[in-house]
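Sync notes, pocket subgroup
Present: LS, DG
LS reminded everyone that the earlier model was apo-only. Rerun requested with adenosine-5'-triphosphate included. Inputs:
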Amino acid sequence: MVNDPLLQVKGVGIQFGGLKAVSNFNLKINQGELIGLIGPNGAGKTTSFNLLTGVYAPTEGEILFDGKRINGLPPFKVTQRGISRTFQNIRLFNELSVIDNVKVAYHSLAKHSVLSSILRLPSHFSGEKEMEKKAMEFLKIFELDKYKDEDAKNLPYGKQRRLEIARALAAAPRLLLLDEPAAGMNPQETKDLMELIAFVRKEFNLSILLIEHDMNLVMGICERIYVLDHGVLLAEGTPEEIRNNPKVIEAYLGEEVHDEHA
Amino acid sequence: MKKSKQFWPFIGSAIAAYAVIQLLISMGILDDFYSNILIFMSINIILAVSLHLIIGITGQFSLGHAGFLAVGAYISAIVTMKLDLPFPVAILLAGIMATLAGLVVGIPSLRLRGDYLAIATLGFAEIIRIIFLNIDYVGGAAGMQVTHMTTWTYAFVCLFVTILVIVNFTNSRHGRACISVRENEIAADAMGINTTYYKVMAFAIGAFFAGVAGALYAHNFYIIQPQNFGFLKSIDILVYVVLGGLGSLSGAVVATVLLTIVSTFLQDYPETRMIIYSLVLIIVMLYRPKGLMGTMEITDYFKLWRSWKGDKQHGK
Ligand SMILES: Nc1ncnc2c1ncn2[C@@H]1O[C@H](COP(=O)(O)OP(=O)(O)OP(=O)(O)O)[C@@H](O)[C@H]1O
Ligand SMILES: [Mg+2]
């Protein structure tokens, strides 16, 4: 039982009108693994995140988390079960302070009731204090603590990306889904971020599924890699296997190489 | 949190304000005209602050607040006039029935977004009005006689409780959940917030206090008629919230105080009142498109002022 995979995606697919954005998608993540998900633009990577987190209900297949079906659950329940995510297009709570952004994600772990807050009972104060403390811990890890009272919208771009990850972690996930977390960052920021991801993975005993465009980066830190193209799984394997897979080279790496030379 | 430190000063100054005004009223310095303005102002603030929770905090554009006001007004009038129960019971029942109405409208319609929600709530308020218009038990179009029972003390206590509840709710994990829905519903959902639950919650609390305001309103005049609770009444309340700055409770209070004063002095000239009202709105929207106070609270200005003073002392 202990060796059961944390996440099992079995033949999942979704259709938008006539377009099969993802079909017959199979994926397995074991406890503690760091897995890469790559593929050209429009391959269906973000869509597969949306399927995993309940934003879309799959039109076929089944998703098991911890052995239990989660497809059909609304996103907030999927998150409460232990999967949380970041967004490719940053989605922070702009008018909330940096620390409040993190507190929102910790919301479901706090217990004080509406009544206790309205009446300002002791449980409200202890609950809020606990939230403050927890949120600060996450901000410190991401070196955002000195911005804690700043509105999220006023953070520079790279810090906004870090805040999104801090926020996702505050929801206490066992599986973290990162959608191009380094997009728009410079090489140094990217390197720091990847070290941070490796650190939180150990620290919080996380499994991580990472969408990333930078091939070297993915190859460098992921144990296994899945390649999507036109909504179907093209290949799966270790970075070594993926690097040498002719289909992948043709569909994806080839394109990248051309891009780089262009 | 610093918010808890603002708690006792707030209660202290509120009680002081109440005592001073009550003293002036009982000494006859504030005559009926002025005490009436104060009562009317309190009712309007309750309405504004309760709608602020729905629109400003949770971001749900509701156009049906007059519907909850009507439910509160009629229910309370039935309780005191037909059932001969005491006024405080009427206030409480008005709030409870308005909450139920809020749940009935809110649960199906809060899944709708933006314009659709606005239309649904607008429709709801009209239905409420038409229902009362057609019930002979409450006087139909002629309206219902109500004894004057609303005093400054009742108005103040209700206002005080409204603000306390809504401020405490807003400054808690529950209020933050509501704000996260306003800011980015998809992200809120993804962070484990049950967005429908919090939308309905904000709606229910807002409706409760609109119902309470309805009870005060009904017993402040001698008659209530369905026509008092039309679409324009909802717009009046909306104007307080928008003018104050969506998301700012103190902004809504300030706007309500100003507009209540303006409309009281222009009571006998309804056309002029509408013109001035419109002008004020246009000017504010031109020069302060985010409302008088944006999303800032008075306490934020106070903090800014203190840090500015601090900077000066440090020679910056
Ligand atoms: N809600 C939707 N309705 C219709 N089509 C959609 C929807 N969401 C995604 N698609 C389509 O599905 C396909 C896959 O999109 P997706 O965003 O998953 O790609 P991606 O692999 O994340 O690409 P990128 O690298 O550009 O982020 C695209 O053709 C996209 O236009
Ligand atoms: Mg994408």
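DG: Chain B has a mean pLDDT of 87.
LS: Residues 139 and 251 of chain B are 38 Å apart (CA to CA).
Action: DG to write up.
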